Amino acid sequence: MHQETLFFQAMIYLAAAVVSVPIARKMGLGSVLGYLLAGIVIGPYLLKLVGQEGTDVMHFAEFGVVIMLFLIGLELHPSMLWRMKRLIFGLGGLQVGSTALLIALPAGLFWKMNMAQALTIGLIFALSSTAIVLQTFSERKLLSTKAGRYGFSTLLLQDLMVIPILAVLALFANQVSTGETAEKATKVYLFGQAGWQRLLLIIGMVSGIILSGRFWAHYVFRFIAETRLREIFTASALLLVIAIALAMNYVGLSPALGTFLAGVVLANNEYRHELESNLEPFKGLLLGVFFITVGASIDFDLLVQHGFVIGVILTSLISIKLIVLFILGRLFGLGTSQNMYFTFSLAQAGEFGFVLISFATKNAIFDTPTSGILLIVVALSMLLTPVLFIINEKWIQPRYSESPDLSTCESVESSDNPVIIAGFGRLGMVLGRFLIANGVKVTMLDYNPHNIRYLKKFGYKVYYGDVTRPDLLEAAGIENAKALIITMGDRDQINKLVDLAQTQYPHLKLIVRAVDVAHSLELRNKNVDAQRQETFESAIELGVDSLNILGFNPNRARRSAYLFRSLEKQFMNDLEKHFTIDDPHFIMEQQKFSELLENKLLARQRRPRVSTTEESASDLNAEEQSL
Predict the structure, then answer these.
(1) 356-361 contacts: CB < 8 A, separation 24 or more?
(2) Is residue 58 a contact partner of residue 35, using CB atoms and an 8 Å limit?
(3) What pLDDT sits at residue 286?
(4) Range 22-30 average pLDDT
């Protein structure tokens, strides 16, 4: 029976997502609002398809937030975090502090709460929803804007503040609750350990994550990559995130904070793109379930009973946060249009509010009715976030002459490389060195762990992954890239990647390695921007060296090479016009061309020879240009 119930619940959640999200997206409401509305519909107050057990599902779905922060960490280099310190600690710190105080003051004055209760509400409501905001930013392509950068910095500081807030709430429990409850709460919070022991445990755990990521993770991932089994890499990625989450939870820290730290440590790891592509589907699915459970958790009976009070609190919360965010955005130099995106995106309470309210209730800071009202306010504010985005985009943004063109806005990360090289073997390495020497930044992808290990010795940043997978290409930044250079050695893989790029990324310039003449002709038919046979140029250069060693005049040898190139190019153009690869005359034409080429080169060699001094460089250049 339990198994049948589990499958039934899974079917309900998945069906709700499949039905509601496409409808919401087509109506321009965004996927987050679709998930939230789906939760309300299937919840205990409408269709009654899910009941109180939805809270257990929410705890499971919160793992989606944990994965999301791990993936965010993978995109951030420690040096980048240091460059963003002004926004993270300046803007984020001011937002949390000022919002908490401005919410705590009316809570103490009008609700007749003591200082501990009022500050608890202020701290809880000061946080915003990382899951909703980043998901919405991603859908609207706002993460690469200045507003996205400011919003992300503020959300990051808020997530970091969860741990200090938990410590403050434990302190408030000692003041508000009875001695017996306080003693119990303190023991629960400290896991029965002395404070200094717990501090040492936390330091050891964080240090272990940093050291493992810096020195050991590379060897572990290389060992896994050598199996060439995608499911094993997926399992190892999930194992990593789950293990870190459990370890951080054991020492009393936020699992999301721990996985974020692990992601930052692994940001320079060559396997990070593969980690991203393997975890991305789990993140999206679990976040969707999380939003559905938020919608299903709204207690409409309590909402009806205390509708006026809830409405006042909700309106006050959103109004105070809008004012604080707008002022801070202006103080930190945001233009009006971008500031409105920043302001309206963070005006809600966050998913950590559910955790903090539950913790405060267990520590007797709030009674059950008060915590129920606060939970409804948090859920409704999250539900209104997509609506606030729509209000901003439909009625506020058109009022400003400042163009919201996202392509000109400041990037979250300045490493959006214009070139991606797929397949970094011997050919790709030379090509990559040439581009880097000319100041072109490249992202290098390869599926051979031995290549990666070898190239890392020379200081290259090469990332592991199957380059024919769209999710890996997106993680590597293909949407922002200008050119995709394909240097793999497998003909079928090359063609597969060319077809994928032309279908899904038509803006890309395709520069492709051809395996042989037939493949070169095939690539011409696919209308790639540039293609070259893999051994053509090196073979000609070796031929020139061979002629020189055999006693040929160096200038004549060089002329023969240019003539060979010219005739080969003309032959390929004629071949493309009249024949296909499957044409039986294809081989015959190649044989004819070989005879023609031999006759022309021999005829040139039989011309009367002149001295080297008479055969000047200017004559050679003129003939080369004519060819």
Answers:
(1) 356/120, 356/123, 356/124, 356/127, 356/162, 356/165, 356/166, 356/169, 357/124, 359/166, 359/169, 360/120, 360/124, 360/169, 360/172
(2) no
(3) 81
(4) 76
The H helix count followed by the E strand count for the chain is 30, 6
Strand (E) or helix (H) holding 462: strand 462-464
Domain ranges for the chain, please list them: 55-398, 414-534, 544-627
Which among 496, 456, 468, 566 has a CA at the least distance from the CA of 222?
456
pLDDT digits (tens, 9 = 90+) for 584-611: 555 555 555 555 555 655 555 555 544 4
Per the structure block, which two tokens stand in for 558? 């060089």
- CA gap 69, 16 in Å, rounded: 25
Cα radius of gyration rounded to whole Å, the chain: 31
CA 132 – CA 151 distance, rounded (Å): 12
Residue holding tokens 């002149």? 610
**Does residue 614 carry a pLDDT above 50?**
no
Give the integer Cα–Cα distance in Å for 480 and 477: 6
C-alpha–C-alpha distance, residues 423 and 433, integer Å = 14
Would you say 473 and 420 are in contact if contact means Cβ atoms under 8 Å apart?
A: yes
Q: Say whether domain 414-534 belongs to CATH 3.40.50.720.
A: yes
Measured distance CA(45)–CA(216) in Å, rounded: 51
Q: What is the model's pTM?
A: 0.59
Residue 135 to residues 30, 142, 327, 427, Cα–Cα distance (Å): 9, 10, 24, 39
DSSP-derived secondary structure for 477-510: TTTT-SEEEE--S-HHHHHHHHHHHHHH-TTSEE
Separation of alpha carbons 410 and 434, rounded Å: 29
Q: ∠ at Cα 409 (408, 410), nearest 5°? A: 125
How much is the pLDDT for 2? 53
Alpha-carbon gap, residue 612 to 622, rounded angstroms:
16
Please provide the CATH number assigned to the domain covering 55-398.
1.20.1530.20
Q: How many CA atoms are closer than 13 Å to the CA of 422, on its beta-carbon side?
A: 32
